[in-house]
């Protein structure tokens, strides 16, 4: 499974912990028990690498079958389609960054691409790095994210 999908799912699960109950699109037809099971599985496995989490999610989806599996397949196709657009937008944003923001972006990308880190460790490392950035660099990165 692609990294973007795993990070998106983990983000959705983490947001839901803090009170928002928006399930990922592939769970729109899931039962309440399936939603709860998925959320518990994601929340209890942040210690896994993206590859291991991808396998765990695929195993869970395979066990669910039916509409969940069909919607999962559609979701994966959607994410794959978005990756090219996302990378093109990222490259466009980088081209207008200040040298400091380019350096920060490279550091954040390196953290994101580190396959040895668990999903939680990546999130923690990214958050820690962001706190070290000067306000103007952080604002520049955030502005680019919002576009």
UniProtKB/TrEMBL annotation:
Residues 1-19 form the signal peptide. It holds the Pfam family ANIS5_cation-bd. Keywords: Signal. InterPro entries: ANIS5_cation-bd, SXP/RAL-2_related. It comes from the Eukaryota. Transmembrane segments: none annotated. Residues 34-138 form the SXP/RAL-2 family protein Ani s 5-like cation-binding domain. GO terms for biological process: response to gamma radiation. This is SXP/RAL-2 family protein Ani s 5-like cation-binding domain-containing protein. It comes from Caenorhabditis elegans.
